User: Fold this.
Amino acid sequence: MKTVNIAIMGFGNIGVGTYRGLEINHDAIAAKTGLDLKVAKIIELDIDRPREANPDRALFTTDRFEAFRDPSIDIVAELIGGIEPATTFMSEAMKHGKHVVTANKAALAANYERLTGEAEEAGVLFRFEAAVGGGIPVINAIETSLRSNQIDEVTGILNGTTNFILTQMTRAGRSYADVLKEAQEKGFAEADPTADVEGIDAANKLSILISLCFGDRVKVEEIPTIGISGVTPDDIAQAKAENKVVKLLAHAAKEDGEIICSVAPARIDANHPLAGVSDEFNAIYLKGNILGETMFYGKGAGPLPTGGAIIGDIIDIATRTK
Ligand code: HSE
Assistant:
């Protein structure tokens, strides 16, 4: 049995989800992989905040360098969120020879080349499955099986909070503010939910998908983005009358060598595969030149589903570096 020592950096919703996922599945993972995945440090400034996990207090440190300089730490899971200081902390971890796993779509969308380049320079592995689609294994699929295809088009429901809000407004006629509050309580929404409702979170994820699907960089600020704060109960009722549903769609396609992309609410036919994607579920609908259409579906937000993707990346790194 190989012990893999993990430092969780940031013990908010996703950090706690990762910790709890490891508690739940530690033995099953050990039986399948021969890996003893151990949380050896938790880097967190607010140690006393009540949480749905109770790790030994001795695991906590407020000093990230205590973990980065510790030769027994193999992998740092960056779960702070936001562009900075998270990007700097990931760079520092890599420079100290740590493999890095992250769920941080904002940092990745802003600093994709920098982070992937620094990982290569430092000779460490860098994985970010949880950054797009939460628990859905879409990044891995694009980087492995789908390499046989040229991807022509990608359309996604990439934000769980807004999909939850639109679903509840459509099904139950609930108010926007009431549903947003519930999404925050369930741990779907960003610390500042403006990023969710104004489409910025979806644009971050689309920017990452564009890099992976088309090998081109489109910065978040270059993606025309409209959120859902202007969607009214009338818009939803009108769509319903036309047998359509309102969804926040992130779309990118390569046309004549140019990337065409946007994030915006759209009315889609009730028969379209994306129309049935409800609540906090996300889906990524891809068209490959030899595969045709495929769709990845699952929970795009929430502590445990996202934590599951983080743990998957940790297992991948630990297996490759055995
Ligand atoms: N706030 C994000 C969402 C979390 O609602 O989808 C997952 O990235």
About this structure: The CA atoms of residues 60 and 173 lie 44 Å apart.
